[in-house]
Amino acid sequence: MQITKAVFTQSAAVLEKCPLTQLPEYAFIGRSNVGKSSLINMLTGKKGLAKTSGEPGKTRLINHFLINESWFIVDLPGYGYARASHKAREEWEKMVYSYFSGRKNLMNTFVLVDLRLEPQRIDLEFINWLGESEIPFVIVFTKADKLTKNQIVSNVSSYIARLKEEWDEVPPFLVSSATSGQGKHEILSHIDEANTFYNNQNI
Ligand code: GDP
What we know:
Blueprint: E1 6-12, E2 25-30, H1 36-44, E3 62-67, E4 71-75, H2 86-102, E5 106-114, H3 121-132, E6 137-142, H4 149-164, E7 173-175, H5 184-201
Parallel strand pairs: 2-4, 2-5, 5-6, 6-7
Antiparallel strand pairs: 1-3, 3-4
Bound molecules: guanosine-5'-diphosphate.
C-alpha cells in the first residue's frame, strides 16, 4: 500500500471529541520521545504531519489523521514522561483507557518501544495491560538505525525473553527506523490486510 494522502483532521482531549466514523483506525502509542511522531511522518511521507516534540510529554491529545480518505492513523499521547505530575498521569490514564474501551473501529495498536533501552517497566506494564484487555497490538521497536545488526538481534532477543516470562505466545513485533524507513512496508502491509478484513466484514 502507498499512502497518497494524509490529512490531520482533529485533536481531541476526550473520547467524545474523536471523529464519528465507521472507517477503521490504527493507534500509535509509546513512551514520550520513543519516536512516535517521526514514525508517523515516515509512514505517511509527510515530514511535519505529526509534530516531533523537542519537549516530551507536551501533547496530551488524541490526534486523528485521515489516510487515503479511507482509514485513520491515531496519534495517542505518550506515557512515562519523567516530570509528569500525578494529576497529568491520571488524566492520561483516563483519556487513553476510555479511548481503548470506546473505539469500536480500532483495528490495531502499534506500541512503540525504544530498541536501545533495556526493557522498561512502564512499557511492559502497558503491553501486559493491552494483552489482559484483549486489545490487538503489534510491538514496534524504534530507532534501529542507532544500533548495529548484532545489537538489534541481541536487544530484540532479550526483549522477547523478558516478554516470555509473562506471555505464553510472544506478541507480534517488528523493527523500525524513522530515519532509514525500515519497518514501513511491514506496518503498511499489516494495516492493508486489516483494512481488507474490516471492509469485507462491513459489506
Ligand atoms: P515522540 O515524542 O515519541 O513523538 O518522539 P519524536 O518523534 O519527537 O522523536 C524523539 C527524538 O528521537 C527526536 O529527536 C527524533 O529526531 C529522534 N528519533 C525518532 N525516531 C528516530 C529514528 O528512527 N532514528 C533516529 N536516529 N532518531 C529518531
